[in-house]
Amino acid sequence: MVLATVLLAGVQASTAVASAPTVTALQAWQAKIAKVPQPSKGCFTSSYPKLQWQQTSCSYAQQPPMTPRPPGPLPFTVGGGGMNDLSAKAPVGTISSATGSFDSAVNLTSETSSGTANNYTLQLNTNPFVSPACSTSPNPGCRGWEQFVYWNTGSSGRLLIQYWMLFYNAPCPAGWIFFEFSPGDPISYCFRNNAGQVSGLANQPITNLTSLRLTGNATAAGDSVTFVAGGTATTAPGDNFLSASGGWDIAEFNVFGGPGGAEATFNAGATIKVRTLINYGGRDAPECRAVSFTGETSNLSFGTAAPAPTPPGPSIQFIEDTDGGMPADCMYAAAIGDTHQHTVAGLLYDFQASGDFVEAQVGPSFEVQTRKVSGAPTWPDASVNQSVGARMGKTEVALCEGKTLVVDGKATELPPGGSLWLSADNVNIYRVGNRYFFVDQDGNSVRIGVHSSYINVSVGLGAWPSKVLGLLGNPDNDVKRLEARDGTQFTVPVSFSDLYNRFGDSWRLDPAKSLLSVCGPQAEQGNPGRPFFARDLNPELRRHAELVCQKAKVPSVWLGACTLDVAVLGDKAAAAYVGVKPPVLTNP
User: Fold this and answer.
1) Domains of the chain (ranges, CATH numbers)
2) Theoretical Cys-Cys bridge with 354: which of 116, 245, 343, 374, CB 3.0 to 4.6 Å?
3) Strands across the sheet with 43-47, in order?
4) What is the structure's pLDDT at 517?
5) Hey, is 378 helix, strand or coil?
């Protein structure tokens, strides 16, 4: 009898193990159930592997506001209603539904918000849009904004939709709640929640993050929100107060702190890979926008290169972590060391001219310029970045010789850890140790790493694809081509003469048009006499430099550039190549 019991228990255990869904099967079910229409308006649940909904009770509770972006300076970390998140934009038309999920979470062990462990919100936010609900506002700038929210309070979960009329600037209509950031503020808002909420959902510790997904639907027929945790799905109906389907074309998804603009604080070393998938009627990849719409934040930031796109799609994917230390960007380019240009399309070429140059220009309101100086007499055929300037709207900012910050022609003190907000053009400037960051209102950014004798410069783009001109641009974002100021195009490989005398010189700046005139006059203008590669170094120096780069685990594709920089600039130069996205193509 005992033996039979043991055998039966073993069979039951084996059956349970055998029936446990694989990660792939569970993810496939999660994607499918989110697309299954509800049989009627109401709240429903479903469990793996079923693809039918079972009705459950809805409940209503007045939920606190998940605030919109606040006025004033922007946080340096994810969220906060600024340019520090990555959102998916429909390439054409509008979005009918979007799903946010987490492909991976590495070293994620804890999270707190407002002093409570596992208190966080998953938010899938629309962009502000023209809404018929705003017809009663005296402000023509009133916009609708919709949030699909799962709020894990630390003890249980709540699923809801929150509706906003931004900049309503008047007493709210019946059923709407008045909101302002400060008493007496002339800018005011109205919000309300959907009637059909679901509360009392199972608590989801932050360590469950990769098993969670949130879907928001908004069509002419109505709106709804669906939350999936592992093998359990829950859906709640909306009230379509804003008619979002007419204007939703950007979707923001992420994990943030609790309501009221709170921050989610993750443990040191946490790394999360986020996916935002949109349905807009097409298959082309979404456009990327460096923008956040919510007031809630986290202590995560960017800096790690985005992964190569993988199915399912159309979606954007990105990585955020506690160590990134950089603002968001949809694409970046860089001018590193002495001087290696890594263009927006991924072309790597050396550029050893001296003088003031246009590095990148995007439209009429964003331009980045650098001053390059020769390494003569020791290294006459090499140059480094000495100073950098940026035009952001009408605001002009320069960092001269890595020492003096100049804002609109005036030297400005900014200690490590400090920040400046230039309200006229909504430009934010941050200093973190020996790094400076300039960020404009469209999410474009300049990142500067200051070293004793040179600076490294990278340019982040707030929208991709974008047309980028200058030394870091490629026509039509074609990695095989460079374009001079007059439109002349050069196919890679570009000859030494064309690179400097035609392409490079076309982007050379007249002193009267240089943003770097505030740094003093140009000391020199010239082109190198010959190409300068790692193979031209003294053999002993080259071996030492290569060893330094190899010990730093610099990828082989960057080894030549790293070797040259270490030889010319010192051992610390190798750090610039660690963890950097490899080039797509190299100009010999």
Assistant:
1) 23-321 (no CATH), 331-532 (3.40.1000.10)
2) 374
3) 54-56, 43-47, 232-237, 222-229, 212-219, 97-106, 271-279, 315-321
4) 96
5) coil
